[in-house]
Amino acid sequence: MGHEALRMMDRKKKDAVRVILICNAILISLLELVIPIPIPLPGVKLGLGNIITLVAVAFLQIQDVLIIVVIRCIVVALLSKGVTMLIFSLSGGLVSAAVMWLVYKYRPNLLSIKGISVIGAVTHNITQLGVAALILSEAMMVYYLPVLLITAIVTGLITGTISELTIAEVKKRHILP
Amino acid sequence: MIALVVMVLMHDRQSVFFIILVYLALATLVLPSTPRFVVKNLLAFGGFIVFPYLCALTFAGCMHLLVLHTFGWSQIFTPQIATRLLKIFLVWYSLNLYFFTTPLDTLLSLLDQSLRPLRRVGVSATHTLIILKCVLLEIQHSLDAFQRNMLAQAREIFRATEHSFKTKLQHIAGSIAGLLADSLQKVNEIQDLLQQTRIENDYALKITGKEVLSILSVGLLFCCICFFES
Predict the structure, then answer these.
(1) N or C: which end of chain B has fewer CB within 10 A?
(2) Judgement on whether residues B183 and B155 belong to the same structural domain of the protein
(3) How many domains does chain B have?
(4) How many CB atoms lie within 10 A of CB A55?
């Protein structure tokens, strides 16, 4: 099933698929406890939950992708009881998901899934830094950008590699519509 | 909570922040929070705000050194910035303490009622909150199995020394695809769960003993601040 088939899918089934993808995104992010981060810095995460965002980008429509990101961020904030983190995760998640979807949809031959993942990670970090700069009312935060860009490239490549393989598997097994 | 946040935002004196900090410490002790919650908050604030800020500050200092040949911390790290960091921490902690000590159903019901006006523009918050509640239920349901199977499997994969990092990632990707395939078999089950799930519609501003006590404590805090200010 492609985008067209998903559009035909009735609302209840679509909601059920959303629930399943969000649950998987949250569960997959637990794998971060196992996979070593090449650049261990405070606040730097692999962002394995983005694998599901990339799977959603590859198979679903923009509104589905954004709903998945919004609900995932809220659930993680509620479960981790760190609601103030929501402002960072939501802003970064939404902007990066939208950028990845646009690149995948309108420039499909320009970048591989790995490249799109790196673009997403870079956008995510830039957005979060922008939000931090706004909260602190301090433009000096820009000086931290090079560190974030390097970590985004590394983490984006790792999640991109897993996502590329996962999407290939999903396509091969006809798992998603 | 709102009164506390407003108090933090309205003042700039460090003595006032100290009083609020003491109040929050007492509230942490009285409310059913855990030491883990406090440590997690401190670490999160340190990791997401303080560490990047200090790094940015160091890089800015280095640039200062390169351009002006002086490394003046005092010109970069001003008392205003320290006050702002403290202010952000107090707001951050107050909000987290509120959400940590409020039951999830009450929060969902409160969100449902607060977002009800969105229906006028065709957005159903209730529908989204039902999906959210289903996700929470389903996660609790599948977490144990995930930890027993996939997490243990991933641990084994990354413990093995004979495979390259890329091979390990390939194994993980295969497992994730398997997880997706298995979970998508449950579409009908999740549809039933979605149909059965309801958002409690009974949120009301109740004035119980606890609420009276918390209002009185905030009043007392306000009096303390006024006293110190004068």
Answers:
(1) C
(2) yes
(3) 2
(4) 25
- Distance from the Cα of B141 to chain A's closest Cα (Å) equals 10
* Cα distances (angstroms) measured from residue A105 to each of A51, A61, A110, A116, A123: 17, 10, 10, 11, 17
Helix ranges restricted to H, B102-164: 104-114, 125-146, 152-159
Six-digit token string for A171 = 């396509």
| Location of structure tokens 């981060």 | A37
The model's confidence at residue A96, banded by pLDDT at 50, 70 and 90, is: very high
What is the tens place of the pLDDT at every residue in B144-188?
A: 888 888 888 888 888 887 788 888 888 888 888 888 888 888 888
Q: Which of 1.10.1760.20, 3.30.1360.70, 1.20.120.910, 3.30.70.790 is the CATH number of A3-173?
A: 1.10.1760.20
B81 Cβ under 8 Å from any chain A Cβ: yes
Distance, in Å, from the CA atom of B58 to the CA atom of B88, rounded to the nearest integer, reads 21
Q: How far is CA A31 from the centre of its chain?
A: 15
User: Residue ranges per domain, chain A?
Assistant: 3-173
